[in-house]
Amino acid sequence: MFDKFRDECGVFGIFGHAEAANLTYLGLYALQHRGQESAGIAASDGTQIRHRKAMGYVNEAFDADSLAVLTGNLAVGHVRYSTAGESKLLNAQPIVVDSVHGQFAIGHNGNLVNAGELRDALVREGAIFQTSSDTEVVVHLYARSRQEVTETAVIEAISQVRGAFSFVMMTKDRLIGVRDPHGFRPLALGRLNDAWVMCSETCALDLIGATYVRDVEPGEVVVVSPAGLKSIKPFAPAPHAQCVFEHVYFARPDSYVFGESVNEVRTEFGRRLARERPVDADVVVPIPDSGVCAAVGFAEASGIPMRMGLIRNHYVGRTFIEPQHSIRHFGVRVKLNPVRSIIDGKRVILIDDSIVRGTTSRKIVRMIRSAGAREVHMRISCPPTISPCFYGVDTPRRSELIAATHTLEEIRKYLDADSVAYLSLEGLTDGVRNGRSHYCTSCYTGNYPVAFPRDEAAYLQLALKLNPEPVPPGSVAPPPLEKDPVAG
Fold first, then answer.
1. Residue 214: strand pairing partners
2. Residue 408 and residue 284 in one domain
3. Tell me, what's the pLDDT at 3?
4. Do 301 and 160 reside in the same domain of the chain?
5. Which of 143, 263, 367, 434 suits 227 as a labelling partner, its CA being 20 to 30 A distant?
6. How far is residue 247's CA from residue 231's CA, in Å, rounded to a whole number?
7. Structural domain harbouring 361
8. Residues 82 and 196 both lie in one domain
9. Catalytic, out of 9, 243, 382, 389
């Protein structure tokens, strides 16, 4: 329904708590925004790993009876949005196997850019794959390791993969967290009394009453066992390439990601956007929910009041069916509705975090105009998105990204806005405390920090499946849907 980059996945793990599975369930609730296709939990009582996975939201995947059988003080959980592999139950995680090393469970946030090559080699050697998920490659590599110590076998397996990964893994008696050497995806470490917790975002720690300790560092392997916590750094140092889009859109604003408050970073993006791209107007209106923080910053820096001129309907579920004879812009209007008393007769600044194909943005601009706005100015709190992501984000092909194929003036005409402006790349990277050297900005620059095979890149260019809207005479058409040459 919305033309956005899709969240990747969320992972959660806990060691040393009698209600490990129940707390994992709550942690996954907090991470639901990172994946809505499937959810799973694996738990161990020290002698056996039991697990449950199901399609749908967390509250659809689990009930009291299913959680009751997941006994033990150790658990890992996963919510999934597929960026590699089909959306079906076989690909739901955690993946749980029994091998020569014993039972093993793994949940993954990210994307392995050499998974295709490794999979082909393993199949030639006789491996039988049960899923189409890139994560299963790691399972096979781990099972084939001849190392006798668990963490050594894990390190040997992980050393063979490339790309973006934050893993939570478990054996019957230990919890293992791993982050790739570039640090693309977040992984936080927390403490709940005597228990240790690992999760994608700190909002999951807040929900269960745990305290944030630190991030798992890029290239670090953290092992929690009855002997305590052990940190291993087995990989060669690599330039940091943390995903800046976590701050732009993915993470919840109440989280700390990469050591920074998401709310504060997004608000700073808005301040910088107001200074870089000012416009004379009457009211600042965020596109909820993703544009709210930046709108607060924009209003603060510009002195123009912010009002909630668009109201979001939070009760539109996955099973919503659009009537066959729909009214104009029905799909967006069922989710958002303008407040005419705020907009009528006003010069409106619309704030959003990003524009991908522009289809939804155009409908919103027209909705604001229909509510009586005299002018509509679009301001975006990130740079133009011109390249797909290959590190665990579902993005369109380059040919579908409107900023990659159209000029700013063409975008303005297509959106039917009075003006359109983006935050500069410098404004974005200066808006995060760690600075540009620590972040991946490939979706804005086309410069990819980790190389990938050309055939794998083609496989990973998953297009957003949006129904094209007829283009009125004199309008600029959205980007075409033809296959794009592989970037890089």
1. 189
2. yes
3. 64
4. no
5. 143
6. 27
7. 263-314+329-432
8. yes
9. 9
What pLDDT does 456 receive? Answer: 43
Instruction: Give the count of domains, the chain.
Output: 2
Q: How many CB atoms neighbour CB 453 within 10 A?
A: 17
Instruction: Give me the pLDDT at residue 319, please.
Output: 53
243 is catalytic: no
For residue 133, report the phi and psi dihedrals to the nearest 5 degrees. Answer: -80, 140
Residues 173 and 215 placed together within one structural domain of the fold: yes
Cβ-Cβ contacts under 8 Å for 30 (sequence gap 6 or more): 201, 203, 204, 206, 207, 252
Which residues of the chain are modeled with pLDDT < 50? 1, 83-85, 456-488
The whole model's pTM is what?
0.88
In a domain, 255, yes or no: no
Domain boundary among 205, 238, 271: 238
Show the tokens assigned to 352.
């959003």
Cβ-Cβ contacts under 8 Å for 55 (sequence gap 6 or more): 37, 38, 61, 87, 88, 89, 92
Domain end among 238, 273, 298: 238
